[in-house]
Amino acid sequence: MQTTLYSASVPVFRQMLTALSAILTKAEAHAAEKKIEPNALLQARLYPDMFPLIRQVQIATEFARGASARLAGVEVPAAANDETTFADLQEHLAKTISFLDGLTAAHIEGQEEREIVLRPGTPKERKFTGHAYLIHYALPQFFFHVTTTYAILRHNGVDVGKKDYMGA
Description:
By secondary structure, this protein is mainly alpha-helical. It has one domain: Four Helix Bundle (Hemerythrin (Met), subunit A). The protein has 7 helices and 2 strands. It has a two-stranded antiparallel sheet with strand order 1-2. α1 (10-33) runs antiparallel to α3, α3 (53-72) packs parallel to α4 and α3 packs antiparallel against α6 (130-155). The longest helix has 26 residues, at 130-155. The protein is globular, with a radius of gyration of 16 Å.
C-alpha cells in the first residue's frame, strides 16, 4: 500500500487525538483517586518556560485542524482555546476529531504540490508545498505537543505507557 497525503495526515491525527483523550481520562481519574486538585495537572509543565498541559493539548489540536484544513483547501475551523477543565479539553478534542471525520481522502489526495502559506505578509511568512508542509512542519509540531502532554502527565505520576500514547 502506498502512503498518501491523506493516510499520513487525517487518520494519524485522529489516532493520536483519540489516544490523547484516553490519556486525559486516565489523568482525571488519577487526580480524583490521589485527591490532587485537577488544575495541578492541567497547569503542569515540564519546565517553567514551557506551555502548561492545557496549552499543549490546544496546540496539538490546532495543528491537526490546521494541517488537515489547509491540505483540503478548506477554512481552518476556529477554536476559542478557553478550556480550563478536563471536561473542556475532552469537548475540544471531540470537536477536532469530528472535524477530521468530515474530511475524506478525496479532499486531500492530489494536494502534494498545493502551496501552503503560513503567516502571509509578515516577516515570519513561510511557504511550503502540501507534502513538505505536512511531513516537515505540521506532523513534527503535532507530535511534539502530543508527546509533551504525555510527558507532563507521566512526570506527574499518571500511570500511562507507550500503549496509551499510541492508542488503538
